[in-house]
Batch of 2 targets.
Target 1
Amino acid sequence: MSAQNDQPQRIATRVIHAGQAPDPSTGAVMPPISLASTYAQESPGVHKGFEYSRTHNPTRFALERMVARLEGSALDEAQDRTSGGFAFVSGMASITTLMSLLDAAAHVVSMDDLYGGTGRLFRRVLAGSQKLDVSFTDMSDAANVEKTLRADTALIWVETPTNPTLKIADLGAIARAARAVCPDALLCCDNTFASPINQRPLEHGFDLVMHSSTKYLNGHSDCVGGVIVTNRPDVAERLRFHQNTLGTSMSPFDAYMTLRGIKTLDVRMRRHNESAGRIATFLEEHAKVDRVVYPGLASHPRHDVAKRQMSGFGGMITIFLKGGVNESRAFLERVRIFALAESLGGVESLIEHPAIMTHASVPPETRQQLGISDSLVRLSVGIEDCDDLIEDLEQALR
Ligand SMILES: *Cc1c(COP(=O)(O)O)cnc(C)c1O
């Protein structure tokens, strides 16, 4: 069972086996947690391919090969040791490492509605330290992307669906526009909200995929991490160098936890997709709800694009309640099964208020422009019994 042979397998099989082989010394079916920081050498420079754990770690490598296979990287182990997969201490560490590939003052085109921490990194750190020139635009409209691209654009950063307004960007259209205007630009999609079960950006012509594995990949709200996958050998080589140089690589324990979580990714995503679809429909019909945003609803402005590029619509729902901050607060205090907490993508259902919680760091005028109002509430639908979840929302809305 080599990593190369499992490429043609379907994704529900890959989440169990991709990039994994029983441990050669014991036959253990799960890669052991390799905690050693250093590895003995027979003679100076003669070793089994492992020198120092920041650089080489078998548990981390197993996770990296797995996610590379799930995202469909074209690289095999002969071209890159982990087939183009790289795991980091957090989603933010993965983005920081990727951004370090860019030259000073590079031009970046970015989605305007972004994970709060990514926007903060671009605006408040890299705009200063790296003099990065970031143009934010609403990429759900391809015309905006074309207007913003420049011949010297170095990176295109897309999130789709976005956080928290669930905008959908057409990955294929963006890739075609970028290849025409700036063929050297790197195209990266933050695929955290969709997971590779629902959407695989490399298939749409992207060079890189990023995940906060804290969310759906690990799925159990007990481990922070990030993963990047590329299918370009030159980019893989540079990422490996930067991951090791910056020291942002994921710990073996976290790699073990995340790999364990991924084994159920397919079954979990099926339930997230199904329950969120039912709940979005329930909320759309509810008198106390002003508007529901969910890519799977026909009312979503880019439902057609979502249907084309996604095989499921995920567990994230955004709603606008009737009333203002007081009504939202009362609703959020009354839910019982949904936990009032930041983060998303775990087995348990969470609910939150972006304007006060996750997106408090977004400047108020930007929040207003993006439509992150005081009546906006974000739900991360877990895998509990969906009837219980609907009853919980019903009693809280009442
Ligand atoms: C959580 C998240 C991140 C950041 O990841 P961490 O693991 O929290 O560092 C980036 N992008 C999206 C879409 C996220 O949801």
Note: Residues 90-92, 115, 117-118, 159, 163, 190, 192-193, 212, 214-215, 224, 226 surround pyridoxal-5'-phosphate (CB under 6 Å).
Target 2
Amino acid sequence: MSKTAQSVLAAVPSLDRLLRHESVAPLLAAHGRAMVISASRPVLDGLRETLTHGSVGMPELASRIQTQILATLRPSLRQVFNLTGTVLHTNLGRAPLPREAIDAMVAVAGGASNLEFDLASGKRGDRDTHIESWICRLTGAEAATVVNNNAAAVLLLLNTLAKGREVPVSRGELIEIGGAFRIPDIMTRAGCRLVEAGTTNRTHAQDFETAIGSRTALLMKVHTSNYAIEGFTADVSVMEMARIAHARDLPLVVDLGSGTLIDLTRYGLPKEPTVAATLLAGADLVCFSGDKLLGGPQAGVIAGRKDLIAKIKRNPMKRALRCDKLTIAALGAVLALYGDPDRLAQKLPALRLLTRPLPEITAQAARLLPALQDALKDHAEISLLDVKSQIGSGALPVDLLPSTALCLSPTGKRSGTALNKLAAGFRALPIPVIGRVHDGALLLDLRCLDDETAFLEQLKHFFIP
Ligand SMILES: *Cc1c(COP(=O)(O)O)cnc(C)c1O
């Protein structure tokens, strides 16, 4: 080892000396000995490798250790700006919760609650009761139960009512939702056998009549949430399927996907079948998600006939799929908002974002443009662009909502690398900004930008990593 290398190493303090130094004392007080030691090791290693010109002072070392600790402590799951243009984005956490739901979670999070305790009788209660009366009131169902998500609801429902038996489903409804949720696979896992009825584009009542046999447990209809069949098509309505099922004493279950509780056309959105209308048309059970169009927490609701719900609740699988108290608190608060449909579009963020007027979004884009041009002047040319936002989560795939995006084209040559770096720069901000890449540009669709101030405030940190 050369003389200089030796002196360089000598300039690196020992861990012991570092921990005893006054500059490190506040870190020990704030984060504890274990955190400081584990953060110090890489800092000292880095020092040994890069130390060529002079030593580094203790205060500087302490500051590097602090940076290391803060990086370790930063939560892995954190807030981002969803500027993808997809309002209910599955990868970005789907529906934003209303204040009422957040308050309801906070109220029960830190202590004991009557989750499964009946305050009137003083006896053991049932966690479903906290949401069941709201579901029944809003959908006309006799009874309801709730599990972790709609995939769990489908699994539980089929496992309870059709295990070891057959379930006819239209070939046009054998969908994949994404994330490995495929109707045929979930049916296998539930222990029932799929009987395919009809063809991809056309299924008729007769196809169900022939598909039904002595081993049939129920008929199932699945909302083809994320795709649309157009052209020469036919499908069997809920009412007609109910007639066929009931003539043979079989229940009809409908997986609605997005759980729409009210007619969305009154808010200028495309028509979706509501839970109430589906039950009224003859479905015996309907299941749907809590965090899609409903605008609540991740959950799966099963609503309908009391005797069937009672069977489902007795399945031991229900225990494995049940929701926690935070979900139940949030879902109850969201359902209560539906009691006042006139104010729903103001109070429920998912609906507010879906119905945001185009002029408001465009005005916001125009307001943000100069600040963004200023912050990114070396990196991108920015203009406003008319775009279409998506509802997302498989809801209403063909209907798009007019919106405005900030369109960022990398300056210089329009290379994919420059574009990727631009997008990475936005993801590296304190509150990461997620846009979408389209046609050589990064689009920031402003439909879901609520906190304009926070967005602007952090632009000063923008850098290309
Ligand atoms: C989204 C969807 C599911 C899965 O619901 P999760 O709440 O995401 O588990 C199941 N069926 C249909 C038709 C869907 O659209």
Note: The longest strand covers residues 380-389.
